[in-house]
Amino acid sequence: MPLPISENIINASKAYPKPNNFKPDYGTAGFRSLAENLPSTVFRCGIIMAARAFKTNKSTGICITASHNPAPDNGVKLVEPSGEMLCQEWEPYANKLANAETDEELAKCVAELLNSENITIPTNPASLKMLIAHDTRSSGPSLSDAAAAGAKALGLTTELHGLRTTPQLHWSVMQLNKNLPSSEQDYYTTLATAFKQLVGTNSDNNKVTLHIDCANGVGAPKMAQLAPLLSETGLEFDLRNTGKGVLNGGCGSDFIQRDKQLPENFTRLPPTARCAAVDGDSDRLMYFRPLPISSDTDGDDSVIVPTTSAQLFDGDRIAALVAAYCSDLLTALGCGPGCAGEGVSLGIIQTAYANGASTNYLQNQPGCSVKLTPTGVKYLHEAAHHFDIGIYFEANGHGMVLFKPAFLEKMNLVAVDQGNKEAAAAASDFIALSQAVNQSVGDAISGILLVEAALRKKGWGLEDWAALYTDLPSRQLKVKVADRKVITTTDAETKVSEPKSLQPLIDVAVAEVPNGRAFVRPSGTEDVVRVYAEAVDQKMADILANTIAALVYKHAGGVGDL
Fold first, then answer.
1. Which is the catalytic residue, given 13, 33, 67, 434?
2. How far apart are CA 503 and CA 520, in angstroms?
């Protein structure tokens, strides 16, 4: 006779006690902390996602990762049956379970969840499962076991998929629930086949070598598996920082965006080199190139002079490039009455972190609508659903292109219509794009294929891409505070609502700077307040950022050195 659910949970939870004084908080992308703090949290996330599977009668997933965080950290990302992130309505449940102080309190919280959501545990849920994966952190396997134990305590079967990128795990959950091929090899085949449909073979000698900073993370072995499938297209990967160094240490997309410096093992590439960087779990993408140096000390232009500075092609520029490509395809479809592109909505979703120059560029593109949301991919992804073609990339490189199923159904009909070959070709490209771009969540690997396809189709190099607009100089800072929750914001995080004294002072500081723009927001993952400032030149941006950081420190309870 099986034990009652509450007894199962109490017994299983004893192996994963919650640390004293640890108060996990569900941030913009799940829970994160030092790895040693997390076994209880991850165990309870296993329970949450098992309950979610029973609620939806579909399979769910968990990925153990701290993404771009330092190597000692870890975290957990929760995957809906759709492959998207955990729905926002269930985040309070996750917080409540994660913070239950005792095994008995946890069992009571679970009972309340099941009752509130009218969930009945099936006696034999053979068709349901939870997929679990982890990144390269040494704590990943044991935390995966903790997640599996939580799911088992509620009666759900699990599959341990081992080492995967976060987007791969999301993709597999999405595919599984659609009854489509969902293995890791299926992922590579789907992406490579779609990319080949977009760009063709290398018949025109379009060979491109992309030098990729893998952040010493999980992306390295995964891109190595994809690379051979792309050889016919002329796209080759030169993988660097593949695991011998520190995870996210002096490398990776977050390092490059923050410091605007070349990562380790990239300083001897020529200025013409096309480079990209991913983060620790390969869901963020940053393109870059070494900044040119006029000459070397000997006057020999054939000598490659080491440089440390990088020109960034961040998420804003990726969104602008993709918007330009999609706009071309819509033009080919025809946008007048009776044409295949009539009434198609193309939306670009940004956050306040988007550079003001990119927003101005996009707002002036025909047919493009720009929408602003709070920071966090869950907000951008939700907004993207409101467009036939929803493009979102945070400045940090986390993003994707989301296509409405009804739009793709229409494209399937247009693609076989031989009456208008130009429209049929454009429709075929849209269909291939929807397969080359991971439709579940932002994915740096599929993002690389998206960027390379857009550049190839437009016949552009990095110079053309860079010429779209000129970034306004900006600076980002972090202010340590005792409690980040003392800061609350409104208007998509562009205005401070609490403390009330702060926003008027920020407005005064901004008004004193030419082309000034600034905002502050509490971090979603740590007790810091993030400061962003833009201005007419870098010196003024730095001054503005430092001025506002001092205001935050004074009015929001700063701690330590400023």
1. 67
2. 9
